[in-house]
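Handout, page 2. Input:
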Amino acid sequence: MKQEVRLGVIGVGNVGAAFINLVHERAETITQRTGITLVVTRASVRDISRARGVSLDAKAFTTNPLDVVNDPNVDVVVELMGGIEPARDLITQALGKGKPVVTANKALLAEHGAELFAAADAAGVDLLFEAAVAGGIPFIRPLRESLRGEPIRRVMGIVNGTTNFILTKMTEEGADYAAVLAEAQALGYAEADPTADVEAFDAAAKCAVIASIAFGANVTSHDVHREGITTVTAADIAVAKRLGYVVKLLAIAEIDADSQELAVRVHPAMVPLNHPLASVREAYNAVFVEGDAVGSLMFYGRGAGGSPTASAVLGDTIDAAVNLKKGTHAMLGSFSKPRFTAIDKTHSEYMLALEVLDQPGVLHSITGVFAQNGVSIRTAEQEGIGENARLVFITHLAQEASVQKCLRDFAGLAVVKRSGDFIRVVGQ
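Output:
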């Protein structure tokens, strides 16, 4: 017997419109596979007069999202408006009314995820958010369900398509950051104000969500060390390429097996060309998971865009509808506040580039600084001569604080014209 589940959608932008259309287009398939018929009965928008290209009766639209939450003819709420408020309040109210919620709101989950997860469990209904991280890539559900018994050591990923597009173009065409950013804006990959992407706010929010689920911890975006790509130069890219690396903006969440402290950070990194993440180009996303028993897993695909994200939202909505009819829900569990490892206590390999005077004794002075701070050099080479002399080093594994001390000491050397360029090396 067919069972109808009525949906209320809050926010009908690119993703919301694509979602509503998918519900209509795939209705028969969904019913055949689940016995459930999904029907969008209510939708809130800012401007009712605007054409949205969806097959929905005009009477279904409202400008008040509370109308969706409070409508007795809405069984499942799909929140696609974004932002913190009023989305937080709307989701809380929907859960309190016993209505499952599906959301793609990474910013909200990165700030108030633990609170909302607790509210969902208390109400005995689903709060599902596959689309909040990596768009259409099925990643959150495997992390939350298939790997719930797996001690995860590290999750590392490319989770922002805009920055990956920019870094790919810089790598493959040798262009500088400003030129590629302008191209990305012209193509619609970057917003007119690209700050959220290029300064890694978007990736930091996703990193917080990933860390929370991977380690059962209450991690917010404020806990994530964040560095964007605006300081990455064409020269940095060229050095990395020549040495067998590619530069990527990585979100990294890892746990120390002994202390159980979490290190959560987003920053540019040099990735070896033989690492799976190195081949992820343009606006694609990928997440690399390392566990004790499973070894290494990678999830790859389109991380953004209306259709891929809508597909992930639809998958969650089907699960929520099935669980609602069965009278069950996916438990999210408790999320305690962990102890964090400060960035200066983390360890990595590093690439450092110094503009120096081209004269005898320079290398001796610089290697002395490395030695004084306990940093071991793996490779060293000189680029250019005379006024263009540049020394490039890659270190062995070293503590961040020690490398930063080296950089400060280099700045005090008369033979160093410019210091401060460094990129972490990961994935070895």
